[in-house]
Structure formats: structure tokens, C-alpha cells
Specification:
It catalyses: 2 ATP = 3',3'-c-di-AMP + 2 diphosphate. Keywords: ATP-binding, Cell membrane, Membrane, Nucleotide-binding, Nucleotidyltransferase, Transferase, Transmembrane, Transmembrane helix. This is Diadenylate cyclase. The protein has about 290 residues and is α+β, with helices and mostly antiparallel strands. The protein folds into two domains: about 80 residues, no CATH class; about 190 residues, YojJ-like (1 (3-Layer(aba) Sandwich), CATH 3.40.1700.10. The protein has twelve helices and seven strands. A seven-stranded mixed sheet has the order 2-4-3-1-5-6-7, with helices on both faces. Strand 3 and strand 4 form a beta hairpin. The longest helix is centred in the middle third of the chain and has 24 residues. The structure holds adenosine-5'-triphosphate. Adenosine-5'-triphosphate (ATP) binds next to helix 8.
């Protein structure tokens, strides 16, 4: 068979070039997987497709507008992706972009979950409201900056001190990443969800739902009014969680979902997050049932 148009001189350098570029693209995709960057990339891709089509059909005005739009977007990209870029460069600097120490990561996640679950139920017993955000892949820098930046080692005592009603930092959310409390008294975006804005559900819970609608963060919410502990993720609020051990398991499943629990329907996690706000409201009105599932 004759292949007249195929390049015949593929050198070793070309092969290395292709493999290296593929690996780089793969790790860049891993870095943005599950973050808002994916939606932004899809939006950009749509703009490029429109530009290509308008060029193809010689739609001069549309093509010119799209070119300027893409140019403007390209200039703003470093600003939009500032948290992701920062994290990527940090990981590269620590040599962790390509080699990840899974065991150390798992230990950090487990310890973080243990402390947060313990704090959640201690605060619930004291009827002290709290919002504790576990940062995921999406950078939360803008939210940390809305409060007081701490950069302090996570501990039970620190969380109890922050949410103590006499503390100047108790109003707002605490944001935690890798066993570090990045900030306290942080302001989170309120949800526009029509169920969440129901007048029976207050702003603390709406703020938890709001942030998880926009990011992959997982949030523990302790209600001051009812002493109930719930978890918010992916724009949904769980039913109240009974005990510390269960909260630990729920958080572990939310932070590191297995393929089975990540499935939308049928998994225990999906059931926990089904029709959550109704149940929360019902429980808020029947205190004797608070700690029953
Ligand atoms: N956007 C927000 N970001 C962070 N924290 C918030 C936000 N809005 C409210 N809060 C916190 O929630 C508290 C008010 O809670 P509110 O009573 O309105 O809500 P709730 O969901 O009914 O909570 P609770 O059951 O604890 O009473 C505020 O004092 C503040 O600490």
C-alpha cells in the first residue's frame, strides 16, 4: 500500500517529544480533573469551535468578534486559574506533580477527618454552630481571603477555640487543607437553590450548599439551633449524621469516593444525600428525633 502523505522520517527525538507532550497533557488534565477549570476549558473549546466554523463559512464579523473574545479570555486565564496554577507549581516545586506519596496523603486525610469529626460532635454537644470546609482539588484562596488567614496546624482545641461563641473568629467558616487551617471567619457564597433558600433553612446551611455547588469541597455543618451535624457536597446537604464514627466514614467516602460510592444512584452515599433539606427541616422541628436516622 502506498502512503504518500505520511512523514517517513520519524526520529527518536520526535517519539520522545510526542510521549513527553502526552504525559504533560495527561498530568495537566489530572490536575484540573473535578475542578471548575474543566467547565472553563469546555467553554473555551466551544469558543474555538465557533471561531473555526465562522472562519470556514467566511463569517467575517463573527470570526473577528470570536478572535477578540478568545484573546481577552486568554489574557484573563492566569487570573481565573490562579489557585490551580499556584497549587500545580507548588507541587512541581516539591516534586509531587508526577510522584505522589499515596501513603502519606492517606494518613493526612485520615487524621484530618478524625479531628474534624471529633470537633463536629463536640461542638454539636455544646450547641455551638460551625462550618468546617475540607478543601478538595479546587483552590479556595478567594474564600480564605474573605476571612482571617491563619495557616495553623489543625487540632481539636484550635477548632473549639475558633467556634467558641466568644471568639472573634467564630462567625463564618473554617477552611482546612492538608491538616492546615488556612483561614477562619470565611464568607461562603449562598446557594440559589430553590429548596435551599426555603425560609426554614438558615444561612449557615445555605452557605455550605452554595460553596459545594461551585467547588469540590466537602463541608461539615453543625447547627447551633438543633445541634445536628450534616455534610454538604456537590450542592447537596446530607441527612443529619448520628455519631462521630459514621461522620468519619461519610467524610472518607466523600473525600475519596470509590467507584461504587461515586455512582449517582443506589450507593449508601447517594441515599444519604437524597432529599436532604426536607429531612433536616423535619428534624429541626422535632428535637426528640434529632439523633435518629
Ligand atoms: N455566607 C456565609 N458564610 C459563612 N458563614 C455564614 C454565612 N452565612 C451565615 N453564616 C454563619 O451562620 C450563622 C447564622 O446561621 P443561621 O442561624 O442564619 O443559619 P442556620 O442554617 O439556621 O444555622 P443554625 O442551625 O446553626 O442556626 C452566622 O452567624 C455565620 O456564622
Amino acid at each position: 500500500m502506498n502512503w504518500p502523505h505520511l512523514p517517513v522520517h520519524v526520529t527518536l527525538t520526535d517519539a520522545i517529544d510526542i510521549v513527553a507532550t502526552s504525559i504533560l497533557v495527561y498530568y495537566l488534565l489530572l490536575l484540573i480533573r473535578g475542578t471548575r477549570a474543566v467547565q472553563i476549558m469546555l467553554g473555551l473549546f466551544a469558543l474555538v469551535v465557533i471561531l473555526a466554523v465562522s472562519n470556514l463559512l467566511h463569517l467575517l464579523v463573527l470570526a473577528t468578534v470570536m478572535q477578540y473574545l478568545l484573546l481577552g479570555t486568554a489574557v484573563t486565564l492566569p487570573i481565573i486559574f490562579q489557585p490551580e496554577l499556584r497549587r500545580g507549581l507548588e507541587q512541581l516545586g516539591r516534586g509531587r506533580l508526577f510522584v505522589r506519596d499515596r501513603r502519606a496523603e492517606d494518613a493526612t486525610v485520615a487524621e484530618q477527618i478524625r479531628v474534624i469529626a471529633q470537633a463536629g460532635f463536640t461542638l454539636a454537644t455544646m450547641r455551638t454552630g460551625a462550618l468546617i470546609v475540607l478543601e478538595g482539588q479546587t483552590g479556595l484562596r478567594e474564600y480564605v481571603e474573605s476571612g482571617t488567614m491563619l495557616d495553623a496546624r489543625l487540632s481539636l482545641d484550635l477548632l473549639l477555640a475558633i467556634f467558641n461563641k466568644t471568639s472573634p473568629l467564630h462567625d463564618g467558616a473554617v477552611i482546612v487543607r492538608d491538616l492546615i487551617v488556612e483561614g477562619a471567619a470565611c464568607f461562603l457564597p449562598l446557594s440559589d437553590n430553590t429548596i435551599a433558600v426555603d425560609r426554614h433553612v438558615g444561612t449557615r446551611h445555605r452557605a455550605a450548599v452554595g460553596l459545594t455547588e461551585q467547588t469540590d469541597a466537602v463541608i461539615v455543618v453543625v447547627s447551633e439551633e438543633t445541634g445536628l451535624v450534616s455534610v454538604a457536597r456537590a450542592g447537596r446537604l446530607s441527612v443529619p449524621i448520628d455519631d462521630e464514627e459514621r461522620l468519619r466514614r461519610v467524610l472518607a467516602a466523600c473525600v475519596r469516593p470509590t467507584r461504587r460510592s461515586a455512582k449517582a444512584d443506589g450507593s449508601p452515599l447517594a441515599k444519604l444525600f437524597a432529599r436532604p433539606l426536607d429531612q433536616l427541616r423535619t428534624r429541626a422541628h422535632s428535637p426528640q428525633e434529632q439523633f435518629r436516622t
